């Protein structure tokens, strides 16, 4: 699993962990050395002292030369050398004896039937041992703190170019055609190569965006003229008295289709320009008004397929919404429902700040509920006449307007698309 910690923190943690391991091993080694000295060198020292005491030249000396913390006891040498009860039962050789808060190193040897015991207090050695342990612990803590400070300083210094590059990318409009390149500000190292790669990618992205903006602008400009001609011609045909009712209905369908095309052109142009202002051209309308209009427009095609189309108003909604965007969303959802429904009905249900489009079609597998809003994704490649862009457009429009669109299975089968407008 990749760590989500910031790089600076990870570098500092690495420094501290390395120091903990190295200092820990060093400290443990010191403690082990102290225990080795206590367990091996002290017996050797006492054994050497006892050899000196029992040397021939010291025989008959009442008090051999010993330091103040070492005492000699022996049998057969009078009361002054009598063995205290505390050491009377110690085994031959080296041993340690404790008496409350006191501890002693003891070396016992038997020579010519006489027992000799050399006793040395541990008090001084323990004081030095405790002092050494305190020094080791203090050194361990100080080394960890020093590693943290040094690691933080080095991490900030190492990461400074990366942070600078990130701030340049975040706070400058890098997609602007006149934005300066980033690579010249950095040496030819890893960060410099990263900045150069970023410049190259941005160059490709700028070119792509420029081509897209030119394309959408050209399409919008070129389509407006024929759409205006179609709309004007429909108006002229409508006011003429030479058309029967059936022909007048067809002319109205052509007029509404041209209006839808004009709305789609504006929608594509706005989305391509990535405007964030929700108050875009197209006018405003109520939800029920647009729903009634779309029902009237799609009713002939849906009923011609043998399906029932109905509009249900569950609750009134007096909100005002962008006419072009709302038309686009409802129209694409009704078209999608018609394409994937063979029998039954399609219902457009409006409510307070939202609506649903329910159908009795083939449904959408649950694993495709999220991906169905992606471009070129179709539930069934053998059905419908589209390219899988309608629901993607719905998702983009809703995201632009701050609306929410979701899909789930209907209670009696089919699919339900729900749009929340607030």
Automatic annotation (TrEMBL):
<feature type="domain" description="HAMP">
    <location>
        <begin position="156"/>
        <end position="210"/>
    </location>
</feature>
<dbReference type="InterPro" id="IPR036890">
    <property type="entry name" value="HATPase_C_sf"/>
</dbReference>
<dbReference type="InterPro" id="IPR003660">
    <property type="entry name" value="HAMP_dom"/>
</dbReference>
<feature type="domain" description="Histidine kinase">
    <location>
        <begin position="218"/>
        <end position="422"/>
    </location>
</feature>
<keyword id="KW-1133">Transmembrane helix</keyword>
<feature type="transmembrane region" description="Helical">
    <location>
        <begin position="12"/>
        <end position="37"/>
    </location>
</feature>
<keyword id="KW-0597">Phosphoprotein</keyword>
<dbReference type="InterPro" id="IPR036097">
    <property type="entry name" value="HisK_dim/P_sf"/>
</dbReference>
<dbReference type="GO" id="GO:0000155">
    <property type="term" value="F:phosphorelay sensor kinase activity"/>
</dbReference>
<keyword id="KW-0902">Two-component regulatory system</keyword>
<keyword id="KW-0808">Transferase</keyword>
<feature type="transmembrane region" description="Helical">
    <location>
        <begin position="131"/>
        <end position="155"/>
    </location>
</feature>
<dbReference type="Pfam" id="PF02518">
    <property type="entry name" value="HATPase_c"/>
</dbReference>
<dbReference type="InterPro" id="IPR004358">
    <property type="entry name" value="Sig_transdc_His_kin-like_C"/>
</dbReference>
<dbReference type="InterPro" id="IPR003594">
    <property type="entry name" value="HATPase_dom"/>
</dbReference>
<dbReference type="InterPro" id="IPR003661">
    <property type="entry name" value="HisK_dim/P_dom"/>
</dbReference>
<keyword id="KW-0812">Transmembrane</keyword>
<dbReference type="InterPro" id="IPR005467">
    <property type="entry name" value="His_kinase_dom"/>
</dbReference>
<keyword id="KW-0418">Kinase</keyword>
<dbReference type="GO" id="GO:0005886">
    <property type="term" value="C:plasma membrane"/>
</dbReference>
<dbReference type="InterPro" id="IPR050428">
    <property type="entry name" value="TCS_sensor_his_kinase"/>
</dbReference>
<dbReference type="Pfam" id="PF00512">
    <property type="entry name" value="HisKA"/>
</dbReference>
<keyword id="KW-0472">Membrane</keyword>
<protein>
    <recommendedName>
        <fullName>histidine kinase</fullName>
        <ecNumber>2.7.13.3</ecNumber>
    </recommendedName>
</protein>
């Amino acid at each position: 699993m990749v760590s989500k910690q910031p790089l600076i923190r990870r570098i500092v943690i690495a420094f501290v962990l390395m120091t903990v391991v190295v200092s820990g091993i060093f400290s443990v080694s010191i403690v082990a050395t102290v225990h080795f000295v206590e367990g091996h060198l002290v017996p050797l020292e006492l054994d050497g002292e006892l050899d000196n005491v029992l040397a021939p030249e010291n025989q008959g000396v009442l008090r051999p030369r010993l330091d103040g913390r070492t005492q000699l006891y022996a049998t057969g040498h009078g009361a002054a050398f009598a063995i205290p009860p505390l050491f009377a039962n110690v085994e031959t050789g080296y041993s340690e004896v404790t008496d409350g808060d006191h501890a002693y190193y003891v070396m016992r040897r038997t020579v010519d039937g006489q027992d000799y015991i050399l006793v040395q207090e541990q008090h001084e050695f323990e004081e030095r041992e405790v002092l050494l342990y305190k020094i080791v612990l203090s050194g361990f803590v100080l080394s960890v703190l020093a590693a943290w400070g040094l690691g933080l300083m080095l991490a900030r210094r190492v990461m400074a170019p990366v942070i600078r590059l990130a701030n340049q990318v975040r706070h400058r409009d890098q997609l602007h055609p006149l934005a300066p390149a980033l690579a010249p500000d950095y040496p030819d190292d890893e960060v410099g190569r990263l900045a150069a790669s970023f410049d190259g990618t941005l160059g490709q992205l700028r070119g792509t965006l420029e081509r897209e903006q030119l394309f959408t602008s050209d399409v919008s400009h070129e389509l407006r003229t024929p759409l205006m001609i179609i709309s004007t011609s429909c108006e002229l045909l409508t006011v003429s008295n030479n058309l029967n009712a059936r022909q007048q209905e067809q002319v109205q369908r052509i007029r509404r289709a041209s209006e839808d095309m004009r709305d789609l052109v504006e929608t594509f142009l706005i989305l391509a320009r990535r405007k964030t202002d929700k108050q875009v051209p197209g006018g405003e309308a109520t939800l029920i008004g647009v729903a009634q209009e779309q029902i009237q427009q799609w009713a002939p095609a849906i009923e011609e397929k043998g399906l029932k189309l109905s509009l249900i108003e569950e609750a009134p909604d007096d909100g005002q919404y962008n006419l072009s965007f709302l038309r686009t969303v409802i129209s694409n959802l009704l078209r999608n429902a018609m394409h994937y429904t063979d029998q039954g009905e399609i219902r457009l249900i409006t409510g307070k700040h939202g609506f649903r489009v329910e159908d009795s079609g083939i449904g959408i597998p649950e694993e495709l509920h999220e991906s169905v809003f992606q471009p070129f994704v179709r539930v069934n490649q053998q059905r419908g006449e589209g390219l899988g862009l309608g629901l993607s457009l719905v998702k983009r429009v809703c995201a632009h307007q701050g609306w929410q669109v979701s899909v789930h299975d209907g209670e009696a089968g089919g699919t339900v698309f729900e749009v929340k407008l607030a």
